[in-house]
Amino acid sequence: MIRSQAEDEARLAAERAEMVDRQIVDRGVADARVLRAMRSIPRHLFLPERYRHEAYADSPVLIGHQQTISQPYIVASMTEHLCLDQSDRVLEIGTGCGYQTAVLAELARFVYSIERIDDFVQPAIARLADLGYQNVRIKGGDGSRGWPEEAPFDAIIVTAAATRLPQSLLRQLRIGGRMVTPLATTYGQQLVKLTKTEHGVEEQYLYAVRFVPLIEDGPDSC
């Protein structure tokens, strides 16, 4: 039996709703704006065709070049910990397929995103444009150095694990700004929330995670 486009869209919307309820809400994510974004963004459109059937599964999914789109819960949780306001300017390190970028764009005034893998850059730009996002700017390059000409940022999210606190990125965070990043420690990777204050940086270790390493070029990268 051939399903109509409307039937397919209804099925996918139901899968998204179930994803949010079972994988995200049931694990404690409560920010209504984050949940609304996760329910509305067509996650399957960010995946290669052969992996789209896995779009709403409770796991990361391959997107090429040995990279993945993060597990839905991790996307939602990291976004919630950024505590975004509609007036915020956000820096994302690691665009990937652009899904996390879209979630951020639903919540913030503007998103600047950097992707090291050239093959991901133009498809992400085109995909987000096709979906109507006009508050996003993406460029290729070394994310560990940030985007200094657009700093300071209200929030920074890093989707690869650094081995040290990323000082070059922290310098681009305004006072009161938040950064959420995986950090490789002697006990394994931990997701860390950093809040920049007038007196230094407050660190909050959240939970264990597993991300690809952040490639850190040069002496000023960390």
Features:
222 residues; alpha/beta; 7-stranded mixed β-sheet; 27% strand; globular
What can you tell me about this protein's structure?
The protein has about 220 residues and is an alpha/beta fold. Helices cover about 30% and strands about 25% of the residues. It has six helices and nine strands, in the order ααββαβαβαββαβββ. The chain has helices spanning about 5-25, 30-40, 70-80, 100-105, 120-130, 165-170; strands at about 60-65, 65-70, 90-95, 110-115, 135-140, 155-160, 175-185, 190-195, 200-210. The strands form two sheets. Strands 5-4-3-6-7-8-9 form a seven-stranded mixed beta sheet, with helices on one face. A two-stranded antiparallel sheet has the order 1-2. Strand 6, helix 6 and strand 7 (about 175-185) form a beta-alpha-beta unit.
Largest sheet: 7 strands, mixed
Distance between the termini: 56 Å
Proportion of β residues? 25-35%
Helix content estimate: 25-40%
Q: So how many helices? A: 6
Shape verdict: globular
What sequence of helices (H) and strands (E) makes up the elements?
A: HHEEHEHEHEEHEEE
Number of strands: 9
> Mean of residue pLDDT?
92
Structural class: alpha/beta
User: Taking Cα atoms only, what radius of gyration do you get, to the nearest Å?
Assistant: 17 Å
Order of strands, widest sheet: 5-4-3-6-7-8-9
Unreliable sequence segments: 218-222
